[in-house]
Amino acid sequence: MFTKEDIKNIATNAQINVTDTEAQKYAEDLDDMFAFINMINETEFICPEFTGFDGPSDCFKNDSIQKFETDCCSNSDNYKDSFFEINEKD
Amino acid sequence: MNNISKIKTIHKKLINKEFSCSDLTKMHFDSINKYDKNIGAFINLTKEVAFSAAQKVDNKIKNGEKLSPLEGIPFALKDNICTKNIKTTCCSVMLKDYIPPYDATCYDILKSQNAVLLGKTNMDEFAMGCSCKTSRFKKTSNPQDLNRVPGGSSGGSAAAVCANLSVFSLGSDTGGSIRQPASFCGVVGLKPTYGTISRYGLIALASSLDQIGPITSCVEDAAIVYDALSLKDKNDPTCFGNVNGPTYPHLSKNIKGMRIGLPKQYLEGITDDIYKSIMSAVDVYKSLGAEIVTLDMPYIKYSLPIYYILVCSEAASNLARMDGIRYGHIEHPYKNIKEMLVNTRKTGLGEDVKRRILLGTYVSSGENFDYYYKKALRIRQTICATFDEAFKKCDVIFSSTVPETAFTHDFKPKGQMQAYMSDICTVPANIAGLCAISVPCGVDSNNLPIGLHLIGNKFCESTILNAAYKFEETTRDSSFKTVNMGVQI
Q1: Using an 8 Å Cβ cutoff, are B83 and B105 in contact?
Q2: Nearest CA in chain A to B341
Q3: B323: distance to nearest CA of chain A, Å?
Q4: Which of A30, A68, A90 lies at the smallest CB-CB distance from B358?
Q5: Dihedral sign computed on CA atoms, order B383, B385, B388, B392
Q6: Complex-level ipTM
């Protein structure tokens, strides 16, 4: 349970000034949020921490659309050509 | 063909001289004058910039020069995307007078193509919110029903497209801020893969989750805008561009044999109307030859709690610079620097922003850093691995975009966490850096739009855009609810 004093201490660290009334409201809000957030403690996660996304090299061939038959624009060499080609088709 | 590309239609009409670009721009500003007083999509109009770009396009047409796809197309930008010499406020009192000295890369690209910037759109303060109600300056209403919110945080961008006040707009998506308002307003919203569109010049909320993307009235336009913007950028070291090449040529490909993953966890807690719409969409895909794969993704339920740990920690760090010295307004009078700093942040930042800064400061301080923040990073890694496994079994993952349709302006959530639940379906894609799109798939019993959410693997925008395009092509008349206002092209 967060108290008004807890919130005021956190607010001081965050360089935010809060009144008593505001501190009380934020304490209730954070209680509500942590009741939800603490579900992460239901399970132990023994794995490395996330350090960022892989570059595209691992994903370059992921686009499964390559597998499907094409109905239009299959001979387009670049974006602009295909855009204008479809324009003409319309 | 039921897909109606506004960009292609306008492009054709400009070339055929059915109207000039200056006329088109004037039509849009006239519509904004007429309708936006009730909608409130725009926070700032950029008439001078718009007509200057329009004039350049008219001159090119006059001289018989070829136009690029976005040349002369009117668009709007969320007000957290930096525009040189044009106010960029993040809809916060803190940045109410901030005029950036540089352009965001995405705007720079559009400017270089002579796309016509109509103005900046309303948003939740610093992109924290899901209703546009935390904007410090004005209220935005959903053009589908003015008593309801447009969603957020890119609510102004979605409302502008929905009301036909702008052909397309750009938003930013940290946990669903493009897709959720697109769903609420019945338009298309694309959250590209993390690192495909440059974030340079986007005022950061959470740098490891933020992504800029388009909001459009149809899938085809989303592909056109995405292709134009997904370029490698030396100013953003996390930006690789679209490594798989343009998506547009792949639209309308046959999806026979496409494997659609349906995780049971995504179908829990949604309304009956939304459940029915999603299952109808599944039937449409089956009729197009797609295969349905049931998925079990138990760790997905941790996405939202870790999202709030990560987003609040990163936001607390990113917004530390909003102190009146480095950025932001200064609250007068003050006796010393400390008083100035604290009072400036007190008046400059709104209630929700402060709440998230408090939470972020708490979970990243002292022993909480290990207990919450580092644990959240481990769970994030687990969720990324969960999606990697899922995409071995399927090509696209399905869900609803949001568990409920647009709520009324006076809706009062039961507790703070209920207010944040709107993002529950969209957040996992941000956690795992995946691409995702919201496309309209019908209406509920209140005649409010429902969004179908398609998640694709990293850098697989072609797959989800094509899947969304085929759905739109098959169902547009029944699934899209258009609004009779604004510029009708």
Answers
A1: no
A2: A15
A3: 9
A4: A30
A5: negative
A6: 0.89
Q: String of b and e for B311-340 (b: at least 16 CB within 10 Å)?
A: bbbbbbbbbeebbbeeebbebeeeeeeeeb
> Choosing among A21, A59, A74, A75, which should be mutated to test the B contact, i.e. which has the most B CBs within 10 A?
A59
**pLDDT tens for chain B, residues 1 to 489:** 445 899 999 999 999 999 999 999 999 999 999 999 999 999 999 999 999 999 999 999 999 999 999 999 999 999 999 999 999 999 999 999 999 999 999 999 999 999 999 999 999 999 999 999 999 999 999 999 999 999 999 999 999 999 999 999 999 999 999 999 999 999 999 999 999 999 999 999 999 999 999 999 999 999 999 999 999 999 999 999 988 889 999 997 889 999 999 998 888 888 999 999 999 999 999 999 999 999 999 999 999 999 999 999 999 999 999 999 999 999 999 999 989 999 999 999 999 999 999 999 999 999 999 999 999 999 999 999 999 999 999 999 999 999 999 999 999 888 777 777 888 999 999 999 999 999 999 999 999 999 999 999 999 999 999 999 999 999 988 888 889 999 998
Q: Is B75 helix (H, G, I), strand (E, B) or coil?
A: strand
- Put simply, the answer to whether B381 touches A49 (Cβ < 8 Å) is yes
Quote the tokens at residue B447: 């005649």
Best of A12, A64, A73, A81 to disrupt the B interface (most B CBs within 10 Å) is A64
Q: What is the pTM of this model?
A: 0.94
Residue for token digits 């934020």? A26
Beta strand B42-45 with B116-121 is antiparallel
The DSSP letter of residue B64 is T
CA atoms of B152 and B134, how far apart (whole Å): 9
Other C-beta atoms lying within 10 Å of the C-beta of residue B91:
30
Cα separation, B305 vs B363, whole angstroms: 12
Strand extents, DSSP E, B327-377? none
Phi, psi of B456 (to 5 degrees): -120, 165
A16·B357 Cβ contact <8 A: yes
Smallest CA–CA separation between B19 and chain A, in Å? 18
How many Å lie between the alpha carbon of B310 and the closest alpha carbon of chain A? 11
Q: Are residues B390 and B457 in contact, defined by beta-carbon separation less than 8 angstroms?
A: no
Select the residue of A26, A72, A90 nearest B8 (Cβ to Cβ). A90
Complete DSSP assignment for B226-287: HHHH----TT-TT----TT--SGGGTT---TT-EEEEEGGGGTT--HHHHHHHHHHHHHHHH
A64 to B244: CB separation less than 8 angstroms, yes or no: no
Distance CA B74, CA B113 (A): 12
